[in-house]
Amino acid sequence: MPLTRSHIRTTTEAYLARHPHERESLAGLLSLLDGPGDPADRATLPAHVTCSAVVVDRRCRVLHIRHRASDGLVLTPGGHTEPGDRSLLVAALRELSEETGIAPGAVSLTRQFLGSPVDIDVHDIDARPAKGERAHRHYDFRYVFYLADEEPPALTLQDEEVAGAQWLPLAEVRSPTLRTKLLQAGLDGRPEPVNASAIIHDGQGRYLLHLRDANKPWIWESGCWSLLGGGWEPQDRTLLDTVRRELREEADLAVAGLLPYAVEHVTGTDGTRVPVQVFSGRWNGDPAGLPLTEGVMVAWVRPEKFPYMTMLPSTRALLERHAAEHHATSAPPSGAVPNVVGVHLYLERDGQVLLGLRHPDSAYAGSTWHVLAGHCEAESATACLVREAYEEAGLVIDPADVELVHTVHTVNRPGGRPRIGLFFRARRWEGTPELREPDKCVAWQWWNAKDLPEPLVPYARAAIEGIRAGRVYTELGWTR
Q1: What is the pTM of this model?
Q2: Which contiguous run of DSSP H or E holds residue 409?
Q3: Cα separation of 26 and 414, whole Å?
Q4: Rg of the chain's alpha carbons, rounded to an integer?
Q5: Phi-psi group of 88: left, alpha or beta (phi > 0 → left; psi -120 to 50 → alpha; rest → beta)
Q6: pLDDT recorded at residue 480
């Protein structure tokens, strides 16, 4: 599907909605879009559209190349569109690959721009009589990408067009307009998930899967069974907001207790690498009653059926891994069952609650906010609390200064071991929270108790809300 005038116009108007002060400087582009010629054809004169790729590495450096055709100017990779380019962004990726050898799968989109141009540059091109080209103008759509891996890949430069390459810090980007916009964007060079999906299971081995339309080749996973979910949008505060919104929009589905499960990397429809935050949660309703707005159907499926279904290998591997880790038993435990006892520190000052961000590689709730907590060993609950507070955060607490303010009795899944969470409030303490166990917690932060962060461990949120409401007990995950 070649580039269309409507695609270029829509992209331009969306850009001008973000930068209305540039409408006058882009008046020539708007006239070009209203004119008779193909705006993407290099033969259209006196102006036409081009595309560039702005690649940012982990050190916040931007790739520049020396263009032979531009009298040796040092620019970001880019050039003219071609008939096979189905979008401006795809044209920029193709030029990047041709000129530097960096494949689309080696870069990711940034949350700041999500595939929208960071800049539309206007520059004049001198006549080149030797090639029969007269002076004309380029309207260059510039797209920002992060390198998907830690280290820059080896470059394979297109010798006939590129004379050299270098990585320049943001403050030294050669184009003034591009430099200003990149510095204002707060880029850090580190890809992060901009999509979210949900593994929804019933706790008894069945998974809720979504069959996507087969007659829409331009969508991701066309004709495949997949997870419900989609892309982050500006109104979403967090990726948990994203997945909740997508479940609501796609199937009017609400799943309580969604927790981060994994970050998976897939290939997007434009060929870029897409990090996806995968959440997991339990639901046991009837999918036939869901008002599906996208795709063909949703259905419960057991893992033994996965090999016989049209499904991306990455999706199948993810689901099979989850199934192996959450093997369901046919009946809940009965009789005398030991309960795991955990103690939790509730610290509040000036309406703010202390929370820690768990390490991404944590076996439980990685990259999720939680109160300071630990499991009781051969000790009393208050002794455990005092020990954990000092070991994890360097806080000194007198057992006489704590009080039990909430208890949570929870079970994560059928057959899972029941857990009792004791939440103690410390009336007084000494010290400032420190990262004393960075393999477990990567940040301590005070949060407004009325505006808690996401993702937050669900039972911790329930306990905090219960404490502030004056409730002393909460049950979660038990089936009746």
Answers
A1: 0.66
A2: strand 402-410
A3: 61
A4: 27
A5: alpha
A6: 47
Whether residue 352 is predicted with pLDDT greater than 70 in this model: the reply is: yes
Find all residues with CB under 8 Å of 381, minimum gap 6, and list them: 341, 343, 422, 424
Split at pLDDT 50, 70, 90, the class of 214 is confident
Question: 413 pLDDT exceeds 80?
Answer: no
Q: Where are the beta strands (DSSP E) in 411-468?
A: 419-426, 441-448
Query: Which of these, 93, 183, 80, 97, lies nearest to 139 by C-alpha position?
Result: 80
pLDDT at 242 over 50: yes
Q: Which two tokens stand for residue 478?
A: 């038990």
Residue 48 has pLDDT above 60, yes or no: yes
Residue 329: pLDDT band with limits 50, 70, 90: very low
Residues 6+ apart with CB under 8 A from 110: 56, 144, 145, 146, 185, 187, 191, 194
Cβ contacts of 479 within 8 Å, gap of 6 or more: 332, 414
Residue 40: pLDDT band (50, 70, 90) is very high
Residue 62 buriedness (CB in 10 A; 0-12 / 13-18 / 19+): buried
Instruction: List 355's β-bridge partners, or say none.
Output: 445
* Residue 189 token pair: 């060079």
- Give the pairing of strands 419-426 and 340-346: parallel
Q: Give the pLDDT score at 70.
A: 66
Looking at residues 348-352, what average pLDDT do you find? Answer: 93
Displacement of CA 366 from its chain's centroid (Å): 15
Residue 347's identity, in one-letter code, is L
Asked whether 208 and 283 are in contact (CB, 8 A), the reply is: yes
CA dist list (Å): 288 to 25, 113, 208, 253, 275: 54, 37, 11, 12, 31
183 pLDDT higher than 50: yes
Say which DSSP state 224 is in. S
Nearest-angstrom CA–CA distance, 185 and 234: 14
* Helix (H) or strand (E) run with residue 79 in it: strand 78-80
**Residue 259, SS3?**
strand
